[in-house]
Design brief:
about 625 residues, alpha+beta
Length: about 625
């Protein structure tokens, strides 16, 4: 994709929605009462903390029906007016607890606290300074809103506030939400076409202003100069490949985008015309397919060496040099698994959206394709599939009638030549902490033996149990497994993907706080509502690890056979000071863990990842498995 610096969008007109009276349900409940019935707060009064001989909490539930679908919430503040203090009132710093299930006034205050749990959205901050924006946005995104509870510890000062029945409307509680009304999206930018032999590739950048929350969709058309449409498709990715075009005709591509509101304007590319490649496109595609198959044979042991795999392929000499450069890592990877009583089996590679065209120079031919590589990891009586898809570019150099396949690269990363090892492809954190910490003495990590694999005695498989906890492990695992194909927002998107799985699938709650602080975990619209800002803990692997270590209840799993679906796996490479990759446990076979991630392979295994780097200069040094849980 063509990426360049963009001007900032103009600030759109924001709106304010004030919820009060019958749109902001509120009730105080005594949380320590042992009598029946429990005392109730006086009419017109809300209570927090120790007041009148009892400990109180107050539940609020906002009616968001007045917030348009697709609105982007930029901030929200809760305003309460003291009824027990007229001036110089000390601001309370209550804990804010999002409720995962419904609570009604017919239930006790104790049940309110039990339902609120211990996942504190905000604490230690004066109430007027708490931004409820991420919380409100989460209710609109998840389609679930049970409200939140406020309370303070028994040793803190209590307070009484005016309620919705206050005679002065200005003193009633109100939740003020600032948002951008949903609109149709802006235009996509930088529509670029790459012509090939009887086809073309189109890429573009999403609109600067998406107009609303939710996924964008693109309608892509190939047009002749007179506007006649010859091919079209719809996609959610900013990329499309078209085949069966005429090399004698120039084409341009039009892209329009739509969201929940409707369609945006059309953006067109410059004209582009394909050209035949020497010898025809089919032979280059066939060679790439042979190369991928030969690489799979070396990794699975179907061929003991690169030379054997090359000899078995009809066009093996075309890619002999490239495969030989990878042989040490492939063989070491295979041997490492053998030493661990495992092996790869059933390797296959499928090429889709293939485009063959001329390269940057006259002596080059480039094959672009989406490559899906699949194989099975076999061991201990069980099989675990691994699978990964990526947009790839394969470059041939021509010398007379001779062609040599000399490089493989990610198609979005021009010029990257495949190295002899995969060490350079290790995932790094998207954002780093202000002060990085050395994790060399980090407790609770999985002990790796001299062979680079977990140093554990194999155990018979047992049933996977999902204990009741605030984060739904099964939901996290299901979401991760089924959504590896969603678009990457960062060049290293691993932790962003894990956070989405915890949020959308596991129901993990936001924590409000400064963007760089380890105690916060949220995403919120910024840049005039056009982009989602994310806390460092949302998008940085070591930041998320520290969030679980010091700010959210979590269990460290010391043995892989004790891991459960939905657990989070963190990786630290030898040459890195911090953990820089994260994945989700989505299967478990004979104690061996299957992982889903945004990484080199979307679906892989722990052993596969360890084996990939074992023989490199930068092996994986530590593995940490975390289980988010409730503190109750």
């Amino acid at each position: 994709m063509n990426v360049r610096e963009k001007p900032l969008p103009a600030p759109p007109d924001s709106r304010t929605l004030t919820l009060a009276d019958d749109t902001l349900d509120q009730v105080s409940a005594a949380t320590d009462c042992a009598t029946t019935p429990c005392p109730t707060a006086p009419d017109g009064e809300l209570r927090l903390g120790p007041v009148g001989g009892h400990q109180w909490a107050t539940r609020f539930k906002a009616d968001l029906s007045g917030l348009p679908k697709g609105a982007r919430v930029t901030s929200a503040t809760l305003s309460l007016t003291r009824s027990d203090c007229a001036a110089d009132c000390a601001a309370q710093q209550p804990g804010v607890y999002e409720l995962p299930s419904a609570w009604t006034p017919s239930q006790s205050g104790g049940e309110l606290l039990d339902g609120a749990g211990t996942d504190n959205y905000a604490s230690g901050t004066p109430l007027p300074e708490v931004d409820f924006g991420p919380l409100v946005q989460s209710w609109t995104e998840r389609g679930e809103n049970q409200g939140f509870a406020l309370t303070v510890p028994a040793d803190a000062s209590g307070a009484a506030y005016h309620s919705l029945t206050a005679s002065d409307a200005n003193m009633r509680p109100r939740l003020t939400i600032r948002y951008l009304p949903p609109t149709t999206p802006g235009a996509v930018t930088d529509v670029v076409t790459v012509p090939g032999d009887s086809g073309l590739l189109a890429t573009w950048n999403p609109p600067l202003d998406p107009g609303a929350t939710g996924e964008l969709g693109y309608a892509v058309k190939v047009e002749k100069a007179d506007g006649v449409v010859v091919a079209e498709q719809e996609t959610t990715a900013p990329r499309a490949v078209f085949a069966k075009l005429d090399n004698t005709v120039p084409y341009r591509v039009s892209v329009s985008v739509k969201n929940v509101v409707g369609g945006g304007p059309v953006t067109r590319s410059a004209p582009a015309q394909g050209a035949a490649v020497p010898g025809g496109a089919a032979k280059y595609r066939d060679v790439v397919q042979e190369y991928l198959a030969a690489r799979g044979k070396v990794l699975t042991g179907g061929s003991l060496s690169a030379a054997d795999a090359v000899a078995d392929a009809p066009h093996g000499q075309v890619f002999a040099g490239l495969l030989s450069a990878q042989e040490p890592n492939l063989v070491d990877n295979r041997q490492a698994l053998t030493d661990n009583s495992q092996n790869y089996a059933g390797a296959s590679a499928e090429m889709t959206d293939v485009l063959v065209g001329k390269g940057a120079t006259a002596d080059q031919v480039v094959v672009r394709a989406t490559v899906t590589e699949s194989m099975t990891l076999h061991g201990d009586g069980g099989d675990e599939p691994t699978k990964g898809s990526a947009d790839k570019r394969f470059t041939f150099t021509l010398t007379g009638d001779t062609a040599v396949l000399d490089s493989e690269a990610d198609d979005i990363d021009a010029g990257q030549t495949l190295s002899a090892t995969a060490a350079a492809q290790s995932q790094v954190e998207t954002t780093s902490a202000e002060d990085s910490d050395d994790t060399s003495d980090d407790p609770g990590s999985i002990e790796l033996g001299e062979n680079g694999f977990p140093d554990e005695t194999p155990v018979a498989p047992g049933p996977t149990t999902l204990s009741a906890r605030s984060v739904n492990g099964h939901g996290t695992a299901n979401w991760a497994y089924n959504h590896t194909g969603i678009g990457w927002e960062y060049s290293q998107d691993c932790t962003n993907f894990v956070s989405k799985a915890l949020y959308h699938g596991g129901g993990m709650k936001f924590r409000w706080g400064g963007r760089k602080t380890d105690g916060a975990w949220w995403q919120q619209y910024y840049l005039f509502g056009s982009v989602k800002n994310k806390s460092y803990t949302w998008s940085g692997a070591d930041n998320l690890r520290r969030h679980f270590s010091g700010h959210r209840p979590a269990t460290r799993i010391s043995k892989t056979y004790n891991a459960q679906l939905g657990d989070i796996v963190f990786f630290k490479w030898k040459k890195e000071r911090r953990y820089n990759h994260a994945a989700v446990v989505t299967s478990k076979v004979q104690g061996h863990l299957g992982l889903s991630q945004h990484g080199i392979k979307n679906h892989t295994t722990l052993d596969d990842v360890l084996a990939r780097y074992r023989g490199t200069s930068n092996p994986i040094q530590r593995v940490l498995i975390i289980r988010p849980r409730s503190a109750k």
